[in-house]
C-alpha cells in the first residue's frame, strides 16, 4: 500500500518536472519580431530577383535568399536550442496549409504572367505579398506552437 503511494508521489513529481520543462521551452520558443520580418524579406528577395529577368541578378538573389534563410535557421537554433519542422503534426498544420495555398495562389499566376507574357514586374509584387504574408503566418504558427507546449501533457 505504501509502495503505491510512493509510486504515485514519484510520478506526480516527475510530471511536474516535465511540465516545468515544457513551460521553459515555450518561453524560449517564440522568436523575436525581427525574425518574422527577415523571413518575409528572404522570400521577397528570392521571388523579387526574378523581376529583373537577368540570370546574374536571379542567381545572386537566390543565393542571398537561401543564405538568409540558412542564417535564420542557425540563429533560431542558437537562440532557442531547438528546431521544429513547420510540417510537423499538430494544430500548426493549419497555418502551414494556409501558407501553401496562398503561395500557390500567388506564385502560379505570377509565373504565368512573368514567363508567358513578359510581365517581369509581377514577381516583385508576388514576392512582396508573400513576404508580408509569411511574416504574419510565421508569427501565427509560433503562437500555436507555444500554446501547444504550454498545454497539458
Mean pLDDT: 92
Helix count, per DSSP? Answer: 5
| Order of secondary-structure elements | HHHHH
What fraction of residues sit in β-strands? under 5%
Largest sheet: none
Question: Based on DSSP secondary structure assignment, what is the total number of beta strands?
Answer: 0
**Rg, please?**
21 Å
Number of domains: 1
Structural class assignment: mainly alpha
* Terminal CA distance: 27 Å
Shape: elongated
Tell me what you see in this structure.
The chain has one domain (2-150). Helix 1 packs antiparallel against helix 5 (122-150), helix 2 (33-48) runs antiparallel to helix 3 (55-80) and helix 2 (33-48) runs antiparallel to helix 5. The protein has helices at residues 2-29, 33-48, 55-80, 93-117, 122-150. The model has no long low-confidence stretch (mean pLDDT 92). The chain is mainly alpha-helical. The relative contact order is 0.17. The chain crosses the membrane at residues 33-52, 58-76, 96-115, 121-141. Keywords: Membrane, Transmembrane, Transmembrane helix. This is Transmembrane protein.
Amino acid at each position: 500500500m505504501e509502495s503505491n503511494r510512493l509510486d504515485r508521489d514519484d510520478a506526480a513529481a516527475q510530471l511536474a518536472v516535465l511540465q516545468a520543462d515544457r513551460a521553459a521551452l515555450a518561453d524560449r520558443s517564440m522568436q523575436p519580431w525581427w525574425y518574422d520580418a527577415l523571413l518575409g524579406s528572404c522570400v521577397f528577395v528570392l521571388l523579387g530577383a526574378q523581376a529583373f529577368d537577368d540570370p546574374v541578378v536571379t542567381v545572386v538573389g537566390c543565393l542571398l535568399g537561401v543564405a538568409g534563410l540558412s542564417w535564420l535557421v542557425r540563429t533560431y537554433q542558437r537562440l532557442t536550442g531547438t528546431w521544429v519542422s513547420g510540417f510537423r503534426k499538430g494544430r500548426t498544420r493549419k497555418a502551414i496549409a494556409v501558407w501553401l495555398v496562398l503561395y500557390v495562389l500567388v506564385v502560379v499566376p505570377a509565373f504565368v504572367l512573368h514567363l508567358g507574357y513578359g510581365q517581369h514586374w509581377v514577381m516583385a509584387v508576388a514576392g512582396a505579398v508573400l513576404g508580408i504574408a509569411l511574416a504574419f503566418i510565421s508569427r501565427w504558427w509560433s503562437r500555436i506552437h507555444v500554446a501547444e507546449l504550454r498545454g497539458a501533457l
